[in-house]
Amino acid sequence: MNPQTIREGYNFAYLDEQTKRMIRRALLKAVAIPGYQVPFGGREMPMPYGWGTGGMQVTAAVIGENDCLKVIDQGADDTTNAVSIRAFFRDLTGVRTTEKTEEATLIQTRHRIPEKPLQAGQVLVYQVPIPEPLRFIEPSEVETRKMHALEDYGVMHIKLYEDIAQFGHIATAYAYPVLVNGRYVMDPSPIPKFDNPKMDNSPALQLFGAGREKRIYAIPPYTDVKSLDFEDHPFEVQRWEQCCAICGSDESFLDEVIMDDQGAHEFICSDTDYCRERMANLEVTA
Amino acid sequence: MNREPILQVDNLTKLYAAGKGCEAVSFDLYPGEVLGIVGESGSGKSTLLNCLSVRLAPDEGDIHYLTRADEWVNLYGLSESRQRHLQRTEWGIVHQHPRDGLRMGVSAGANIGERLMATGERHYGNLRQTAQSWMNDVELDIARIDDKPTTYSGGMQQRLQIARNLVTHPRLVFMDEPTGGLDVSVQARLLDLLRQLVTEMNLAVVIVTHDLAVARLLAQRLIVMRHGRVVETGLTDQVLDDPQHAYTQLLVSSVLTS
Prior knowledge:
The structure holds two protein chains of two kinds.
Chain A: H1 17-32, E1 38-39, H2 53-62, E2 68-73, H3 80-93, E3 96-97, E4 106-110, E5 123-127, H4 141-149, H5 154-167, E6 178-180, E7 184-186, H6 196-199, E8 205-210, E9 215-219, E10 225-227, E11 254-258, E12 265-269, H7 272-285
Chain B: E1 7-17, E2 20-29, E3 34-39, H1 45-52, E4 60-66, E5 72-74, H2 80-89, E6 91-94, H3 98-101, H4 108-118, H5 124-137, H6 154-166, E7 172-176, H7 184-201, E8 204-209, H8 212-218, E9 221-226, E10 229-235, H9 236-241, H10 246-253
Parallel strand pairs in B: 3-8, 3-9, 6-7, 7-8
Antiparallel strand pairs in B: 1-2, 1-4, 4-5, 9-10
Helix pairs in contact in B: 4-5, 4-6
């Protein structure tokens, strides 16, 4: 890769080398203690908090010249957020970018895990808004850190209990809490619970960056990730009665799309790359 | 009777300033016994209770506790996780204000179930059943199991707090003015309920109160405190009917009688 392709006046991947080192040290610690939230000195990025500054800093710290980057937003490669972050890193690193899951070595994601199973050697970077799974019940950071340290996790099931008491089933549909490596309870960022099983024993390395809260955590490859549940209300993923209106898939995560102002709506795959590839295959066999 | 105490307190001292806090307190507590701590405001009752329930480290002195597994432990020599484990499984702490002891943001059922979930209960049906039977025991309407405690009256909140504490069948319960702030008729029913539960479950209880009527009704033994020191101890009836120390005499004589 030719370093001249980087925009002039900027360091490779925007952050300076010392910052990247600092983030890498936090990442190493996070990988060593799966699910544990490591504080790091989050930097200002050239966009607002909540747009993925945490994920971008992690990506900037681990990206190398030989990487191939894919960025998705709610599964889609072509939304504003995904396009902008991809353009940002193409501009400031010159690395190859792709929309194909299997080609990418580094995938930055907002709120989805690709449908296609990840492989060993791939790195998945999540953008995380609120890293603390206990925050909903305990506003004090001092107290939540103590609760993690003492494995005082009884309150996590309260949330699920309240769901069942109110709705008759566990209604939490995203940011569904998981137990990582039998030790730390972790918020898997707002991915739908549909994606939770994909985190379990994944061959890929999963890194989580929260920019505003300045926390990094990780799931190393082949780590046990268990979704919390009750014996008589076991963990279940969402199911749809419809198939994707474009590719006809009946096993992917579907988004509901409003088609006109008459209330017509369709369901389509949220993972655009998965949908496109299925269409291409259908055309070949037809 | 050849019974061992459940709690041994030896020369416990926690002073914020001279005469402020509690000083050189020693006593033994036996299973099934209710010990009342009485005294005026600022006499160190609550400080003593906080020290006993490992929420406030004392300056001096030791507290030994006999666990369910028949093992003597020095409470302040334990790791923080062991201390919390004891608090969750073997003890109950009933706060004066139910808001301090309850989770106001979640339903009554979840409040009762929290300790069970924390100790590993993972069956929703069982949790639900236990919560209902406890609401029944403390005379709360089962139909309100999914309501938040914010919608409960003060007396109901206090009864909910008691249920939440007793659900794991503790051996030792600390109570800080459990009837404070309740009107007299509600107080009487709550005391009745407490006395019944204490007898049924053979609980050891340390109860802090400034109300001598509460002490007489619930406690078998009394500790009278003033300026952080124990001025008199003994059987409740003995202390209240034949007070020896000048302060206790003052305390007893100042009770309004109709």
